[in-house]
Amino acid sequence: MRLRPATANDAELLFEWRNDPDTRKSSIRTDKVKKAEHASWLSRVLDSRDRELLIAEEQEVPVGTIRTDLSDGIYQLSWTVAPNARGRGLGKEMVAMIARKITAPIRAQVRSDNISSIVIAKSAGMEFERELDGFLYFLRPAQK
Questions:
Q1: Which helix (H) or strand (E) covers residue 134, if one does?
Q2: Disulfide engineering: 91 pairs with which of 30, 81, 125, 132, CB 3.0-4.6 Å?
């Protein structure tokens, strides 16, 4: 697997993944996103200095995405595995890949019923921090 920076050419693929019913069910925002709203969001993400959006590929086929958002010295991680690539451990692999590159603290916010993402967060070295309003928060301290 490799991680590459997302580009505007990934807009349609990312839009489809974002509006997948299982992705929406596990997301912080569960409503369906309109194409114009998604295009605007993607443009802001690609222009941001504090966000990085990566596409995970297996043999040059996109299988997921991971985003890092830097705020107050902590990287918030967010990920999605492509609907047709789920159940193969790819989420664990892509989150571990990005976690190894980041020495600063990393955090993840996961719906309390999203067992797959809970396992992924823990496997990347994040520990349960707190629960609030149906979400679990995980944190890995800075690495030396």
A1: none
A2: 81
